[in-house]
Design goal:
Elements lengths: L15 H12 L4 H11 L7 H8 L6 H27 L1
Helix pairs in contact: 1-4, 2-4
Amino acid sequence: MAKLVKNNKQEQPLSHNEKAYSYLEQHLPYTYVDLTVEWLIKKGHKSPNKALIRNVRNKTILRNDILLALVEVATENKNSIERIKSLVSES
């Protein structure tokens, strides 16, 4: 009889998509749809449907190109907020 190896998996780290959605929860602005469309057009993609962007944001559909655009928009928003905070604190 073969010995069975007990697989004690510890808590799995978040996948890159789960980390991305966690990041979006913290830093994505409320007006993300138009900003995401602008970012995608700037990068040479066709203009996606706004409902598609919302579905990716709500985890209904997984499209890595749109998820990347959402993360970029969130990063720009985070950097803007930090810049505003630093300018206000200098005064």
